[in-house]
Amino acid sequence: MKPADEGSVIRFQATTLIQDVGIRLQVPQMTIATAQTIFHRFFAKEPLADHDPMDIAQTCLFVAGKSQETPRRLRDVINTVYRYRNPDLPPLEVADPFWQMKEHLIESERLVLRVIAFDVDVVPPHAYAVHFLRDLRASNDLANCTLSILNDSCRIPLCLHYEPHVIACGAMYLATELLSVRPGDGDDEWFPNYGAHRAEVEDICHQLLGMYESVRMPANPADADSAQPTGRDNEPFSTPDLNNDIWERRMSR
Q1: Residue ranges per structural domain of the chain
Q2: Largest CA distance in the chain
Q3: Do 8-116 and 125-216 show the same overall fold?
Q4: Are 72 and 39 in contact (CB under 8 A)?
Q5: What secondary structure does DSSP assign to 11-23, as a single string?
Q6: DSSP β-bridge partners for residue 230
Q7: How do residues 46-71 score in pLDDT, each as one tens digit?
Q8: From the CB of residue 174, how many other CB atoms can be counted at a distance below 10 Å?
Q9: How far is CA 96 from CA 59, 74, 85, 106, in A?
Q10: Is residue 171 a contact partner of residue 129, using CB atoms and an 8 Å limit?
Q11: Which residues fall within 8 angstroms of residue 115, CB to CB, at 6 or more apart?
């Protein structure tokens, strides 16, 4: 498989910043996925070379927090991103550099909103996946693997080419192949019932596998702690119980 081009690697690094900083800020996964989608929408209209992708990633996370009603203070976003990008430097002091970063983030927010025409309405595929998994009586292992893959899927611009329910089917199908399981009644062709075609599902699987290969991520996120979403103190989230309505509400936020 050919290596990823430089632009794809930079986009992946920027969306990884969104994921990791979002976890440190303890925002819901839906907010993180929204920020990553806004990031992809922005660079679908703007050349990558014209902007600092890491700055835009920071801005998208700030914007997504507002749009998803899970806002984080501007100074918390700035400080957390600064520590993420400069782990060996002392904490940022409230001095001229901080105020410059604050003004830059405010200006960047205006830019991002203008470029995407204020389109911050995002329906991440996770909510669809939870519905499909429950409907097919999927195991917790399959649910955990599917949702981990979906978290990773937001790092590449699948959202620009496929509807969220189709992405959910693609991630779930890849999870079934990696785990060698069949959901529901064991039918291999379950995804047409949820509005996805085989060609779409297979293309999504190929793109996801290409992502894992090109950035040397684990081929099966369910087998590696590094691919699992983490929470406070860097502990992996527990496997979701699909019979738990609290989990469904959490993923649907």
Answers
A1: 8-116, 125-216
A2: 63
A3: yes
A4: no
A5: HHHHHHHHHHHHH
A6: 236
A7: 999 999 999 999 999 999 999 999 99
A8: 27
A9: 20, 16, 19, 16
A10: yes
A11: 42, 45, 46
Burial 220-248 (b: 16+ CB within 10 A, else e): bbbeeeebbbeeeeeeeeebbebeeeebb
Residue 217 pLDDT greater than 80, yes or no: no
Contact criterion met (CB below 8 Å) for 167 and 204: yes
Give the list of residues 6+ apart from residue 225 with CB closer than 8 angstroms, or none: 236
The band of 235, judged by pLDDT with boundaries at 50, 70 and 90, is: very low
Please report, as a single letter, which amino acid is at residue 162. Y
pLDDT at residue 104 is higher than 80: yes
Q: Report how far apart, in Å, the C-alpha atoms of 44 and of each of 41, 129, 142, 160 are.
A: 5, 25, 32, 8
The whole-angstrom separation of Cα 108 and Cα 57 is: 10
- Considering the domain 125-216 in this protein, what is its CATH number? 1.10.472.10
Q: Alpha-carbon distance 10 to 5, whole Å?
A: 9
SS3 labels along 178-211: HHCCCCCCCCCCCHHHHCCCHHHHHHHHHHHHHH
Tell me if 171 sits within 8 A of 204, measured CB to CB.
yes
CB atoms closer than 10 angstroms to residue 73: 11
Element (H, E) at 102: helix 96-115
Q: What is the DSSP letter of 241?
A: -
149, 186 contact by CB (below 8 A): no
Specify the CATH number of the domain 8-116. Answer: 1.10.472.10
* Side chain identity, residue 37: T
Among all chains, which residue has been given the structure tokens 């920027």? 14
